[in-house]
Amino acid sequence: MSDVRALIMALPNPVILVGQDSRILGVNGPAQRLVGVECDGWNYITALRQPAVLDAVEATMSDGGHRSTRYLSNDGARDTTWDVTVSGVALNEGHAVLLSFQDITAVEDAGEMRRDFVGNVSHELRTPLTTLLGFIETLRGPARDDKAAQDRFLAIMEQEAGRMHRLVEDLLSLSRVEGQERMRPTTTVSLTSLIGEVAEALAPVAAANDVTLIRDIPDTPVDILGDREQLWQVISNLVENGIKYGGNGKTVTVRLGPPTHEAALMQDGVRLSVLDQGEGIPAHHIARLTERFYRVDSHRSREIGGTGLGLAIVKHIINRHRGRFRVHSEMGQGSEFTVILPLGRGQPPK
Q1: How far apart are CA 154 and CA 136, in angstroms?
Q2: Bridge partners of 260?
């Protein structure tokens, strides 16, 4: 029996051995931490307490078979889920039951994320689709000969179709970015030139919203190793958000610092910031801004055409570039979104 106990103690996963008298014959350190008490010698019912596990142990004691069940716990920070394999074993002292625990919390979390994602996509598509179907039915019926109603309905239908198109485009973009996240970019990109191009492309949007777009960039070029198309997405997304949420008659500033040592990266890098003069973001929202479909103000975001995926895409692109993303905001003082990017190999600070 001492050899069996030594083997159990050496195993990295939680393991509990229950004897035929229903008392625990052996329990290793991980299992004690999981159960929360030093339960060696205890009746297994007192130590485990969860009906699904107790039923599996009882049934295995009766037939010596093999079963699987779940054990739910909490590590102090979050709920955890464990897959428990319950097997009958033969010892010199008689028959026993071995419980082996495998942490499947990450798998369960991934499944929940997929379910939430599908639910969110369905919810985002349901409203415009319902609107389109309703107007189509109206145009075929009561508004068949009403020219003014047709023009009004077609304008709304165009807006809703555009909303669905943006959502699909962002979903495809998010999928591509996630697929490339582990592959570091290897091409040289001029951030100074890229900022200028994005600013010119968004000038009509800024003018339509009565927003002044300011560029605060170094006189000398700043180059990094990156993916040009994805960095365009990052800059344009942040600038467009600043324009849309910053408020009419305000300014949005795009600031690029010179290359320097960045403690957050533990190497040389550059900081690119987009500052707006909007109403600010409440502190409790900031940590969740990069979650898919998370919105500070859902109604306002939908009104201006937001999909709720923009900052999630930004986060994944920055991760691919091994950078950092920071958000600072004070109510009534506007917001500052900062991207810290490494220069890449062979790019010393100038």
Answers
A1: 9
A2: 269
Q: Where in the chain does DSSP place strands (E)? A: 15-19, 24-27, 66-74, 79-91, 94-103, 188-190, 212-216, 223-225, 251-256, 260-262, 267-275, 324-330, 334-342
pTM: 0.66
Of 107-116, 282-291, 339-348, least confident by mean pLDDT is 339-348
86 contacts: CB under 8 Å, gap ≥ 6: 53, 56, 57, 60, 66, 67, 68, 69, 97, 98, 99
Report in angstroms the alpha-carbon separations of 49 from 23, 57, 61, 72, 104: 14, 11, 17, 11, 20
User: Which residues touch 151 (CB under 8 Å, ≥6 apart)?
Assistant: none
Please name the residue ranges forming H helices in 141-202.
Answer: 147-180, 191-201
Query: In angstroms, how far is CA 12 from the centroid of its own chain?
Result: 30
Pairwise CA distance, residues 212 & 210, whole Å: 7
pLDDT of residue 349: 43
CA angle in degrees (0–180, nearest 5) for 70-76-78: 60
- Going by pLDDT thresholds of 50, 70 and 90, the confidence category of residue 252 is very high
316 by Cβ neighbours in 10 Å (0-12 / 13-18 / 19+) ranks as buried
Q: Locate tokens 């379910």: which residue?
A: 115
- Rounded distance, CA 23 to CA 40, Å? 8
- Note the Cα 210 to chain centre separation in Å: 33
In this predicted model, what pLDDT tens digit does every residue of 156-182 receive, in sequence order?
888 888 888 888 888 888 888 888 888
**By the 8 A CB rule, do 189 and 270 touch?**
no
Q: Which two tokens stand for residue 265?
A: 């990266």
